[in-house]
């Protein structure tokens, strides 16, 4: 018998029912080779050329107000439209199409052009949490045909983010997006069988084993999932099976701001750079009654592998067959867990 960290094996993601391949024998050895340091780019607090800074012009004669906290606006180049016309009928069973109505918004996290979540005081992050909650409620109430509100942040040029000003986006749609649909089915099946949310059981086990824990506070737990695909992928889970961001009480929102700050600071400290990632919350669908199988959480997917510049490529076998990783989730979790909680520099 060999241990999981010694031999190639596959692991199942129970939230999506998808497998990944783990090959720890390839590089699961003590960290070797040097880590190139990148010089941090210094940005001004206000950039006259930034379309997200307070008071500045945006596309189509729009202008941002002189905002001093989080600021939300309708995306000027939305991927979805609320009033799109019905599609002409495509009747072939193998060529299905459906109308997808939706709303796209941009959420500036702070007026400070030079900040990221990792620089923001926890009280300021808390205001962003409130905005995410309000937006989910407001959108669902105003557009009764909406079924899902996706809150996310795409950070860093490496992730294709077009502007370093701290911001995220909200896309709300009339259907469940693909990842949500997978998680909805898996969580529902688990809840129907056990009467508990899948994530409650994952949390209990992770808190007992501790090997993949990255950070925890009174209301939130951050772990590297057993089935993590990206080298430093983590999940941020509500300790209680809350369904939506808006269900969180005051203490849980404060603790969420604390957990977000703790995580993104550790991420920045890993390679001493502003760490790129895509993150987003997974919450219960809207306008569809109670969803007791849903358990609020967020996923962080950072592209970096070994240094500030070496990124993991999801190509070849991973595109054609199944995702694969070398360093195990346990090894990577330990690295993140041991990083300082104060940002470098
Ligand atoms: P990303 O860099 O994460 O893509 O976000 C920037 C968003 O801002 C992008 O979705 C929008 C883009 O459509 N945008 C505006 O809404 N107005 C503008 O004037 C420029 C960019
Ligand atoms: Zn700016």
Helix content: 25-40%
Please report the first level of CATH classification, the CATH class.
Alpha Beta
Helical/strand content category: alpha+beta
SSE string: EEHEEHEEHHEEEHEEHEH
Q: What is the CATH-assigned architecture?
A: 2-Layer Sandwich
Strand order of the largest sheet: 3-4-6-5-10-11-9-8-7
Oligomer: single chain
Distance between the termini: 46 Å
Number of helices, counting only DSSP H or I runs of 4 residues or more: 7
Summarize the structure.
The chain contains 7 helices and 12 strands. With 345 residues, the protein is an alpha+beta fold. 5,6-dihydrouridine-5'-monophosphate (H2U) is lined by residues 51, 58-59, 75-77, 106, 154, 161-163, 169.
Describe it for me?
There is one protein chain. This protein has helices spanning 24-27, 122-142, 178-194, 198-209, 250-271, 317-320, 329-337, and strands at 9-13, 18-22, 71-74, 102-108, 148-155, 167-173, 213-216, 220-223, 234-238, 277-282, 297-301, 324-325. The chain is α+β, with helices and mostly antiparallel strands and 345 residues long. The chain has a single domain (2-24, 51-337), classed as HIT family, subunit A (2-Layer Sandwich). Strands 3-4-6-5-10-11-9-8-7 form a nine-stranded antiparallel sheet, sandwiched between helices. A hairpin with a 3-residue loop joins strand 7 and strand 8 (220-223). The longest helix is centred in the last third of the chain and has 22 residues, at 250-271. The termini are far apart. 5,6-dihydrouridine-5'-monophosphate (H2U) is lined by residues 51, 58-59, 75-77, 106, 154, 161-163, 169.
